[in-house]
Every structure is written in structure tokens, then in C-alpha cells.
Amino acid sequence: MLKSASAYADSRLYAIKAQTLILCSGKDQLLPSQQEGERLRQLLPNCELRKFDDNGHFLFLEGSLDLVTIIKGTSYYRRGKYHDYASDFIPPSRDEANKIIESYSLFNFITSPVMLSTLEDGKIVKGLAGIPSEGPVLLVGNHMLLALDTVSLLSQMYTEQDIIVRGMAHPLMFRRRKRGRLPEVSSFDWLRVMGIFPVTATNLFKLFSSKSHVLLFPGGVREAFHRKGEEYKLFWPEQSEFVRIAARFGAKIIPFGSVGEDDLGQVVIDYDDLVKIPYLRSEIENLTNEAVQLRAGVGGEVENQQVYPPGILPKVPGRFYYYFGKPIETDGRKQELKDKDKSQELYLEVKTEVERCIAYLKEKRESDPYRSILTRSLYQATHAPTSDIPTFEI
């Protein structure tokens, strides 16, 4: 009878259209939780699965699990029929943010990020004092390899300025065309807790309306999965994608550059090498097809958004550097920037400023006595562990 009832229920699970979240344990001694979770995910049409490999049967009785954080990370909280990434966003609690930042403490120790910003009078200062505390603000910069720059940027903005930066992210961090070999969407839950959202004009419009700080990498996937010798090369669309929306809300645009990926590793096998092997070319196509595609038909290199695993030769870790240029005002320029040529002119100004910031950092880091992790480790061994590590003179 039990088998019959179970089969009857299973045969009707496909009809459940409600959004469903399944939590399953990895060390459940009473039930095969993970196997059952996978089975139900296959049957329920609108289902997300989250696995907790180190937890037992009584998930909610274990102190390491926070259901509210899980709901935030899966974007399941909503006030209306669908989740709104602007109005339904609940900022992380201090405890949530600190736990996330702490989980990346080793990465931040290895890269020891240096933050520079520019005040209204043009003076460059160490730290993020040049970032306006009130929005709307649009931070526009380059992506380093595999988007490694995001971790340090979000954590430093929060710890130093108490600013939650809403990062515009590729849809592959939220959904897939199909399941395959890409990392599970759950890998990016922590980013959703910290406020990332799918890159769309509508979402950008809503976030500027709420006076948010927004982070944009116009080069997107093409820069994050760049080829050999393309470090710090910008792959931006030919036409402006953000200037007129920023001007509509009077958002300050802050161009920035980031460098340091070439001090962590060097790309020795890239897309051009891998596609020469038929099997690997097929695998790359499969990976790319799993992700939702952006900018199809826009032309140029930015349209090439192949997702592939680059071969990277590790190095003795160096340091990450970020330089935020002087804020560019758009307040009061709404009518002016409706003109396509004027908008394009400002777009190119932002791009040129990002390139200038990158060039500045590449030059200045050569004089940083603590660029290597070896000298930084020696410094920390002779000073307080939490003391700031010096860098080059500005």
C-alpha cells in the first residue's frame, strides 16, 4: 500500500507549479536525504536544491544553519508573484556579512588588496573615502580573470564604508538553460546574499530608483575568460549601455581599474588552444550552451562569451590593487545625454578613464615593497596581525 501511495504521489508531482526549495543533509543517518532530494528535483518543475554535506538529519536543530540566509541566497523571498531584485532585496545582517567575508579571509590574506580612491578635488587617497556614501552611484571597471576581483571589492566596500554594492552579474549565476557540468547555482548563493542581481536594463533602472550603489563590468564574461596575453584589455560593447540610464537618475559614475591577476597566475592554455581538440571543443560548446547567453548579435569581441576552463600556471602570489577615479557627475545632464553622440562621448570618457586607472596601477605597483606575499608575511610576523600592510607612495 505504501509503495502504491508513493507511486501515485510521484506521478502527480509534475503538476506542482509552486516554487519549491529542498534542503537535504549529507550526513543523515536516518534517511537518504541527498538521493531523495535529487529525485524530487527531477520531478518538480520549479525546484531548487541545496545540499548541506556536513549536517545531519535534524538540520534546523543545528546552529550552523540559518534558514533566513538560505532563503536570501536562493532569492526565494518575494512580496509579489515574482522575485524583484530591487524591492525584495533584504540587506545582509552584520552577522551574515561577516560570516561571508570571513569565509574568504584566506583569499583576502593572499591578495592583500590595496584600495585607492579619488576625492572631489582630484586628490588620490588610500582607502575608499572618495566613494560617495549616498547613491545612486555606478562603479564601472574591468574584470580580472575568472572575476577574482569581485570578492575583495565587495568585502572592502562593506567593511570600510559600510556600503552594500549591488553587483550586476551574468544570468548563469541565477539560472541555467539546462543542468550540466557548470558549478551548481548554489555556488553563488553568498553573492546573492550580498546583493548581486541579473544584468538587465530593468533591474538597473529599479536600483538607481532606490539610490543604490551598483557595480558594472561592461566586459563581462569576455574579460573574465580572456585569452593569453589579454590581461587588462577591455572588451566593451561599441555603444553605450549605461550612460543614459545613469543620467536619468543623476547617478555618479565612478570609473575604476583593478590589477593583480598576473601576480597570481598566468594563462598558459586558453580557448584558442582548447578548441583545436575536437573533444574539448565539444565540451566548451556544451558548457557555453548551459548558460543563458547575453549580447547575442551585438557584434565584436564582446559577443564571444565562451565559458571554458583556462589552464593557469600558478605564481608566488602578489597583490590586488584597485583605483577608483574621480566621480563623474550626470546630475542635471539628463537632457544633454539624451543625445546619442553626447552619450557616446561620455561612454568613451569612462572607458578611457578605466584604462588610465589600470595603467596607473601597473606602473605604481612596481614600487610596492610589499607586492609579494613573502615580504607581506614577514611584515605581519613583526607587526600586529591585523595591522594594515603598507604599499607604494601615492
Compact overview of the structure:
With 394 residues, the chain is of the alpha/beta class.
Q: Would you mind describing this structure in some detail?
A:
- With 394 residues, this protein is α/β, with parallel strands linked by helices.
- It folds into two domains: 2-65, no CATH class; 94-381, no CATH class.
- The chain is built from 14 helices and twelve strands.
- An eight-stranded mixed sheet has the order 4-3-12-9-5-8-6-7, sandwiched between helices. A two-stranded parallel ribbon has the order 1-2.
- The relative contact order is 0.12.
- This is Acyltransferase.
- It is found in: Endoplasmic reticulum membrane.
- It is an enzyme of class 2 (transferase).
- Keywords: Acyltransferase, Endoplasmic reticulum, Transferase.
- It is a multi-pass membrane protein.
Helix share of residues?
A: 25-40%
Distance between the termini: 77 Å
Succession of helices and strands: HEHEHHHEEEHEHEHEHHEEHHEEHH
User: Could you report the average pLDDT, rounded to the nearest whole number?
Assistant: 92
Give the C-alpha Rg.
23 Å
Question: Numbering strands along the chain, what is their spatial order in the largest sheet?
Answer: 4-3-12-9-5-8-6-7
Number of domains: 2
Derived from helix and strand composition plus strand pairing, the structural class reads alpha/beta
- Report the major sheet: 8 strands, mixed
- Low-pLDDT windows of residues: none
Strand tally, please? Answer: 12
| Continuous helix count | 14
User: What is the molecular shape?
Assistant: globular
Proportion of residues in β-strands:
5-15%
Protein name: Acyltransferase
Pfam families: DAGAT
Main location: endoplasmic reticulum
Keywords: Acyltransferase, Endoplasmic reticulum, Transferase
